[in-house]
Structures are given as structure tokens and as C-alpha cells.
Design a protein that fits this description.
alpha/beta; Rossmann fold; 7 helices; 5-stranded parallel beta sheet; nucleotidyltransferase
Length: about 190
Amino acid sequence: MEAKLEQRRSRNLLKIVLFGPESTGKTTLAQMLAEHFNTRWVPEYMREYLQVKWDKEQKSCEPHDLLPIAVGQMALENKMAAKADELLFCDTNLLELVVYSRAYYDEIVDPSLLKPALKAQYDLYFLTYIDVPWVEDDLRDRPLQRDQMFDRFKSTLEKNDLPYRLLQGNLQQRFETAVKIIEELKIQKIEL
């Protein structure tokens, strides 16, 4: 299982994760940034997996779903990393699964998920704030706990000393802020 969850490091690829609670615009922003920078983005495998489960069984995520979701997410990331040039935008990562596992399953995280989640390396996390409207769908379920979920995401980044920048405001403001930050990051990488 560990090999299936291993992140393959890619040449000089900058990996950026959109990270934060549900319904904060991560998918839309990942798509916009990938298009702007003419590169690839990694979709959120959990959404696809859980939508199929909901459509077939009317069930939401259960603890035994987390490892198959993690395997699918890392497979997508590794596949897109092999195709990307210079930048890769990840609409979530394994660490997000860790946050949800802790929030939904009494602070319990499967060690076979935790170890690769903490081992994976990214150049930057964009932490998406909750100041955009909640959009309901089949899978989203915590509209009244957005503050608590945001705090979980933020504290996870800080506890693990991971590089992040907060994105706030409407979609266009977030996009413009992210583009400026990425341009700065690209210059820093060239200078190294």
C-alpha cells in the first residue's frame, strides 16, 4: 500500500496545492490557474469516488473509503506531474484527507495514510478562506461548521510547518493574488 501512496518527485516542477474546507472554490481556482499558466491540474479524486458511492448507495464517506481515495488521488497526481511543465496545481492532496479523517472520525487517522501525507512535498499551499458563499450539493455537509473546518486546515499547515498563503475575497481577487504569488515563487526558484 505504501508504494501506491508514494509521491514521485518531478524534475523542476513547482507543485502548488489548493487546500481548505469544502465549497471554498479550490476546483475552480485550480482550473483557472492551470489555464492561465498553460499547465496541468490534478482533480479531486475524493469527489468523483464519493459521488459514485452516493449515486449507487446513498452513502457518504466511511473510514474504509479513505485509503482507496488516497491511492486514487496520488495516482492522479503522479500521472499529471509526469505531463506538466514547470507548474502543477493540485486540487487537494493526501493531507486534506488527514484533516477530514480527524474531523469526521474522532481524530483517528490510519497510519498508512498519515505517513505518506506528511512525507509528500509541495512548494506552496494556497489556503482558501470561507468568505465565499456556500454551495450545497450531494456531498457537502457542514455549512454551519465552516469556521471550525477552516481552523483545522490552518492549524494542520502550521503544526507541520508547511509553506502557505491565504487566499481571500471573491474568485477574481483570489485568482489575481495567486498569480502574483506564483510569479514571485517562479522568480525565487530561478534565483536558486
